[in-house]
Amino acid sequence: MFNSTTGDLTWSVCTAGYEVVEAEEETNVPDAQLGTDFYLSETQQAYLLKRGVVRAKELDTKEYIPSSEADGLARQLAAMFQYENPLVQSPTDDQVLAFSNRFGLLVPGDKMYVHDIVLTCKYLHLFAEAIDRGDKVKAREVFNNTVVPGMTVRLIGSKSGRLTADWKLEVEPVNLIALAWLQIASELTAGKAMKKCDAPDCLEWFPGRSNKRFCNNRCKMAFHRHHRAG
Ligand SMILES: [Zn+2]
Question: Is 137 a member of any domain?
């Protein structure tokens, strides 16, 4: 759902959380329309289908605005992918659920295929890896060959809703997959580097500043406690 003034996407999260079930248990699961011609071997396909469906436990939802409340979303998805190995889940079901419980599913509705999440994580991971090692050619190739057309264009006067002389057309995402891609692409286009929180077990990412190491004070304290103890 869009705010018609600012163009911002509002997203829903099931308040009761999510669960992973066998694909056979669910009908009418929407296809995330990754819209690309990924090559997948038969083994990979079979493995991905077995990952099942992630679905909301109940219908009650709460809402948030990902563009202002989920800075590190793309980097978190990218970091969830580690291995290409049919014997090892990557991301694991636990990672998929932790992400969904916090940010909701990647596409509208109350269920989606886990394999659409896995592939989204995989290609964001390839992009992140490329920009982190300075390989912009590879990053461009990943983006241009794998990004979904899950985007729309909005006419924006000003973010506050008051009119200004500064009218713009903005590309806006229609789902979290597109939002993640726009977010991670802006690390290149706007030079907005992201940093991971240094605290043990914290998965947060935030816009990088040279002296900032933690996402909040609690993490800073956890880090120092951990290091004193160790
Ligand atoms: Zn943190």
Answer: yes
Which pLDDT tens digit goes with each residue over 41-89?
A: 888 888 888 899 999 999 999 999 998 999 899 999 999 998 777 677 8
77 Cα: distance to centroid of ligand 1 (angstroms) = 16
User: How many domains, the chain?
Assistant: 2
Domain containing 157: what range? 11-192
226 and 174 assigned to the same domain: no
| SS3 label, residue 214 | coil
Q: What is the pLDDT of residues 19-30, one digit of tens each?
A: 999 988 898 998
Contacting residues for 226 by C-beta, under 8 A, at least 6 apart: 199, 200
For residues 180 and 74, the answer to whether their CB atoms sit within 8 Å is yes
Give the Å distance between the CA of 43 and the centre of ligand 1: 37
